[in-house]
Write a structure and sequence with these properties.
CATH topology of the largest domain: Rossmann fold
Radius of gyration: 22 Å
Mean pLDDT: 91
Shape: globular
Number of strands: 14
Number of domains: 2
Largest sheet: 8 strands, mixed
Distance between the termini: 19 Å
CATH class of the largest domain: Alpha Beta
Low-confidence stretches: none
Strand order of the largest sheet: 6-5-4-3-1-2-14-13
């Protein structure tokens, strides 16, 4: 069989770009040609006829009409669909509800392979969608691969890191800090059929927003209290990629030793913090896996937004006094931090995330991709032609942006792709080279930036 074309769809670059590079480098080392890109660029390539059939690897199989139609068009082109749900369903016990909202018989029928973060999600999908058992694989996640000690050097020290040791506060508020306004998110969920698949979600959504707004206020109060009662550490507030960083900057304006930072993946910020503070956040799971001290702050009873698994982790606190004492103790006593490192990963996490000490999840995924190979997936692509197509598209976007800013009443307001900001050439080449060296790849690979949101990796 010839070597395949593989297209990796990245929705949120801060969350998925580095694991996409890991998958791409491993696949390219075996001779496959891999594109890592935002969805719009991949679809444009398919529609133009420039992109030949290949493996289209996407972030989820949510059964929305738009996605089902899009995937059918990709299949009609001769391509195969594979997926791992990047939301993961990691924060709650059980997987049944997540499986019914994020998958369907139809979307699994359209897929060639589905990769599970762990035993729980894979076994639940097999139970509910038993007709597709042979497509569901327990591989683990390429994102979780990057939490392993092997990749500590890859992450290094993030930009703008404080000079003092810092507490990382990981935010995942879904109310007044979100970039997308509540009514627009509501409209999307309605059109995507979420309320039809889960009738109770309609009422719950409003109650979640109210509770989350209260939680945001409690966290602002807690950060101010910690800053005023610190034994000498700084605080880094890390907004979720879907949150508006400007909102947090205003909430925490003029608070000493507090930094609101959103650049880079959250992983290097976790690795370099002395502890991680959260409420209902997946980052607590990552921190626990990497043996970083976790402080769970639950200032009031949460009926709608308390995620069971992350909120059981680490040092649980509920008052400002308890919180500051816990954080200051972690900061003062290095021995506590060392004790955290030798603790076994809790069973509630190992059930959710599969770790193989001998093989990366990304390696397992590439092997399954190769098992799907056929002659159609190996057709040549004119990459120069694709690059020019993307340049023309960028020019049209710039022109459209200009018109929208000049005449918003006529063309509507301009909307930036905030989940996937433009890539910087030097930054991508730096990441590629570091990953390449850590993996110990012997084959010579090339990395090209075809557009502001499209990376090509292939053998020289």
């Amino acid at each position: 069989m010839g070597k395949m074309n593989i297209y990796i769809d990245v929705e949120i670059s801060l969350r998925e770009l580095d694991s996409g590079l890991l998958l791409a480098i491993l696949a390219a080392s075996k001779g496959h040609k891999v594109l890592i890109s935002h969805l719009t660029e991949i679809i444009l390539g398919f529609k133009s006829g420039i992109l030949a059939p290949g493996i289209f690897h996407t972030t989820n199989l949510a059964p929305t009409n738009q996605k089902i139609l899009r995937h059918q068009n990709i299949i009609n082109n001769g391509s195969f669909i594979t997926s791992i749900d990047e939301e993961g369903g990691l924060v709650d016990h059980g997987y049944d509800k997540f499986a019914k909202v994020r998958y369907s018989d139809h979307t699994l029928e359209q897929s060639a392979a589905v990769f599970g973060w762990g035993l729980e999600d894979a076994e639940t999908l097999k139970k509910i969608y038993h007709k597709h058992n042979d497509k569901i694989h327990v591989t683990g996640s390429a994102r979780a691969d990057l939490w392993k000690p092997k990749f500590y050097k890859y992450w290094g020290t993030p930009k703008n890191i404080p000079k003092k040791p810092y507490l990382l506060v990981s935010s995942n508020m879904h109310s007044i800090t979100k970039i997308t306004s509540f009514h627009k998110e509501f409209k999307y969920l309605k059109q995507a059929g979420y309320f039809d698949r889960d009738p109770g979600f309609f009422s719950k959504l409003f109650k979640q927003a109210a509770e989350d707004t209260r939680k945001t206020g409690a966290f602002v109060e807690a950060i101010i209290h910690l800053a005023n009662n610190s034994n000498g550490f700084d605080i880094v507030l890390r907004p979720h990629p879907t949150e508006n960083i400007e909102a947090w900057k205003i909430f925490l304006e003029d608070i000493p030793n507090v930094h609101v930072i959103q650049n880079d993946s959250i992983t290097p910020w976790v690795n370099n913090a002395f502890a991680v503070m959260h409420n209902s956040c997946t980052t607590a799971i990552e921190a626990t896996v990497t043996r970083k001290p976790v402080v769970t702050y639950i200032p009031f009873y949460q009926e709608y937004n308390s995620r069971e698994i992350p909120n059981k982790l680490g040092h649980k606190t509920s008052t400002l006094k308890e919180l500051s004492e816990t954080v200051n103790n972690l900061f003062n006593d290095i021995q506590i931090n060392e004790e955290e490192k030798v603790k076994k990963i809790p069973d509630i996490i190992s059930k959710k995330i599969y770790f193989d000490e001998d093989e990366l999840a990304a390696e397992k995924i590439v092997k399954i991709w190769e098992s799907l190979n056929n002659k159609k997936l190996s057709k040549k692509i004119n990459w120069i032609k694709l690059k020019w197509l993307l340049k023309i598209s960028d020019f049209r976007i710039i022109a459209g942006k200009f018109k929208q800013k000049l005449f918003p009443s006529k063309f509507g307001p301009y909307r930036e792709i905030y989940k996937f900001p433009k890539l910087e050439k030097n930054d991508i080449y730096r990441r590629f080279n570091k990953m390449y060296k850590i993996l110990g790849i012997n084959e010579k690979l090339e990395c090209y930036l075809l557009s502001d949101r499209t990376i090509l990796i292939k053998k020289s």
